[in-house]
Amino acid sequence: MSVRVRYAPSPTGSPHVGNIRDALFKHLFAAHHHGTHLLRIEDTDRTRFVEGAIEDIFESLHWLGIQWQEGPDKGGAYGPYIQSERQAEGIYDRYIEQLLEAGHAYKAFDTSEELAEMREYQQINKQPIGYFGGVWRDASPEEVAQAEAEGRPFVVRLKIPRDQTIAIEDAIRGRIEWDSNTVDDPVLLKADRMPTYHFAAMVDDHLMEITHIIRGEEWISSAPKHAVLFDAFGWTRPVFVHCPVIKGKDGSKLSKRHGDTRCLDFRAAGILPEALRNFIALIGWSPGGDREILNEAELIEAFDLGGLQPSSGVFDLDKLTWMNGHYLRACTAENLTERLKVFLAHPETARYWEPRDPEKLAALHLLKEGIEKDEAYARQAIELERERVTSLADFGEATAFFFQDEPPFDEKAVEKWLRVDHAGDLIRFLQANLNGAESVSVEACEAMLRGYQEEKGFEKLGPVVHPTRVALTGKTVGPGLFELMSVLGPDRMRARLSRALERTT
RNA sequence: GGCCCGGUCGUCUAGUGGUUAGGAUGCCGCCCUUUCAAGGCGGAGGUCGCGGGUUCAAGUCCCGUCCGGGCUACCA
């Protein structure tokens, strides 16, 4: 039987990295086994629906290259793939009836006040908290009929068998057992006739022939309920795979106060999708051995359940940053420029940086204009700065001096290198050498500076290089000077040199 | 409170009874070099949560204990 797995998000918000990491695992697992990965939208809780969430789910998946073969957008033989539509078709009602008739489920007419009271009582008396039957689990048909006749609202609960051991076989942790008396009767159908997750997801998993339920470990405690449900229907249970969660630096569940957690925020921050994908694949999973950098194909090839880790992992932004730099350097300048164009044009980029770092955003605008004005020139600048950045968002500041007619002077740099005795002479020398030239090669630039060094008898190139760099860029750091000069070209250099000359005395 | 899961350098991890406990990141240093990076090389960092046991031999198996986390909704 071929592998079938599903990513089944609820449209309650934009997917965060932990959630999307699970989706990545499913895609990788399905692809590895030439199986099917399907997307199912679990929108049974109307009250928590968030506008735009579904769009963000698709977008996050697309961006990271997570694929699926069946879903609301693609169709498939097991549709519909949206639970509210399935509910409307009466799918869940049919199975509820079946359970009710077989005596595996029952109607419970408790009010929310009664339920709250019950929990309070249990808490005070230090009893296990939950619904273990109340008056309705074993109510007579007459009592139920009467309550129904009165039109009292009710829910349908699953009758968890008592005095038994419920066990599941988890692919990562092995056998996990519960005393069935500690498992309460979950609601299957809510008073508004909508199914709960427990019910809808399991029915759908069966109908869609899901072979492996891959989900976060926060579901472990619900697993016995799901197992009982499968057994009640006489269905074969899928393999349960409970993945470890991703935590923040302080060890608690990843949340907003740990910084970015929304998948699409990383895109806006300038992270490359292949970097984020590679990075999150390695939290809670390992290909074994020392391998760390894996592309899409390698991930698929290497992915198996055996590499999944039982313990949760911390999201280490430093390492993601490093990995992003690695992938940035692996791009060609052409490719990088194309990615930058998309990045700079995306409205989320500005929305992301505006409140965090307006200066960075301004530099990004400068780069955007630079690319629009002269893409070939911009590409050379990008090429030269590529080794000095760790995210797409760094390119603005890194390349700024290429695009500014008058890049601001770092006053300390001026103090140190433009106030040396020979600075004025050096600049005049360069001006003379550049006179009339239309372009200048890297080699010519080097020859020019070395010529001056020799002429003046400097032992090292530093006294020539540093003042030139400050004169041309305003800074003491940056790409190789000869390369930078060649890219800048004679015109820009002439303008900057004469401006710098005024600062030499 | 109850039930369940977890625990190897700060962090991600390799490890399936015999290793000087390996790699990566981060940190420090050296090399390269016109600066900053990148790259190369090296260093510090682990009593494998703790305590018992089993065994000639335990990070690896067993028990206990501590700590962390999850669930405990007519949310998923």
Write the topology of this structure:
Layout: E1 4-7, H1 17-32, E2 36-39, H2 53-64, H3 83-88, H4 91-102, E3 105-108, H5 112-124, H6 141-149, E4 155-158, E5 165-170, E6 174-179, E7 187-189, H7 197-207, E8 212-216, H8 223-233, E9 239-243, E10 246-247, H9 263-269, H10 273-281, H11 296-302, E11 313-314, H12 317-330, H13 333-345, H14 347-356, H15 358-373, H16 375-385, H17 395-403, H18 411-418, H19 423-434, H20 442-456, H21 462-473, H22 481-501
Parallel strand pairs: 1-2, 8-9, 10-11
Antiparallel strand pairs: 3-4, 4-7, 5-6
Helix pairs in contact: 1-11, 7-8, 9-14, 10-12, 13-15, 13-16, 14-15, 15-16, 15-17, 16-17, 16-22, 18-21, 19-22, 20-22, 21-22
The protein binds one RNA strand of 76 nucleotides through helix 5, strand 6, helix 7, strand 11 and helix 12.
Would you kindly provide a written description of the structure presented here, covering whatever features stand out?
This protein is mostly helical and 505 residues long. It contains 22 helices and eleven strands. The strands form five sheets. It has a three-stranded antiparallel β-sheet with strand order 3-4-7. A two-stranded parallel ribbon has the order 1-2. A two-stranded antiparallel ribbon has the order 5-6. Helix 8 (223-233) links the parallel strand 8 and strand 9 (239-243). The longest helix has 21 residues, at 481-501. The chain binds one RNA strand of 76 nucleotides through helix 5, strand 6, helix 7, strand 11 and helix 12.
